[in-house]
Amino acid sequence: xxxxxxxxxxxxxxxxxxxxxxxxxxxxxxxxxxxxxxxVALLDAYGAANSRSSSSDESRVLRMGYxxxxxxxxxxxxxxxxxxxFFESAGKPELFAPTGVLWTTPPADAAIGQTTATLQxxxxxxxxxxxxxxxxxxxxxxxxxxxxxxxxxxGGALYSRRAVQAVVEQAIRNGVDYFRDAAEAPNGxxxxxxxxxxxxxxxxxxxxxxxxxxxFPEILExxxxxxxxxxxxxxxxxGNRQFAPPEMPIWLDFSSGRREYVLPDLENRGLKVGFDRHxxxxxxxxxxxxxxxAAEVRxxxxxxxxxxxxxxxxESRVCQYENxxxxxxxxxxxxxxxxxxxxxxxxxxxxKHGPMVGxxxxxxxxxxxxxxxxxxxxxxxxxxQRSVY
Length: 389
Hints:
- Helix content is about 25%, strand content about 25%.
- By secondary structure, the chain is an alpha/beta fold.
- The chain folds into two domains: about 15-55 and about 160-225 and about 325-380, FAD/NAD(P)-binding domain (3-Layer(bba) Sandwich), CATH 3.50.50.60; about 70-160 and about 225-320, 2-Layer Sandwich (D-Amino Acid Oxidase, Chain A, domain 2).
- The strands form three sheets. The protein has an eight-stranded mixed β-sheet with strand order 6-7-5-13-14-15-12-16. Strands 1, 2, 9, 10, 11, 17 and 18 form a seven-stranded mixed β-sheet that branches.
- α1 (about 25-35) packs parallel to α5 (about 160-175).
- It is globular, with a radius of gyration of 21 Å.
- The relative contact order is 0.19.
């Protein structure tokens, strides 16, 4: 379904809720709110899952392992069910690739025990792999030092851009009015857009990711910090299937300061490689998205995947994280506006949780849920102390 300027040109009318931002959080919030019977407007300045957003690019990781952080394991597991149910109902089951997810760590890392205990507590299927088992099962890897691993067979990759657009399309079919326009800060029960129109609503949910500190600088500057992040797609040798599913899963190694993640060759785009660390500050509107230096990632790929030494970079992308101080989400009411809610801080791990964020925000507006303390504005400092990945 093509995205149009609203249904019925209703922008001057009143809605129960207006959602600003059509990334993964905003799309699912609008979808869930409409499912509860509310009238909903959804706005995005550049369009759903646009290339400036944190929900763009081709793929995102869906995994349940989060160390001892049970809330994220529970949310990821429930979100996985919702994603798959949604894709089936929308006739797009191909938007989830069940690759499995492999997480490796040195044997002495305490997180391995925390993760296995949490996965067991929630009944998440996993396999523990010794160093010898890792080498035998994944011969395309060359680990830099001894590793043990956890393999989650239920994990996989979400085709991010198309997944968000599918949720928005279905929300529109269900009656959400969608507009491509930029909203300013609220004023009572109305918000003006950059095009000069006025949007009236009983409640406003700002789910606009890296734009949140630009709209609300007085409370969010320093508490949400957009950073420049780069990803690269490496081309495997002709005829080589070692780097595509089912031979290769998604791989995460969060035991070094660099925290590497690798997605297998999906849709013949190449091996996707990135480092989960914070880049320099980045402006989502005007930031330069051209990658100029690939020396570090080339060296990493040559070391860890010897068959890809000298492999060409087929694509490269610049997106951004929207980091909170801890890496936890920010989902809370605006301290000065009773009818304004903030939902953001995906911090590089939030995409998978879109369905649960939508469900949670809908419950907050219904009054059937309370703000989780770790998602509160009060829990966010202006100094980086990231503990959630």
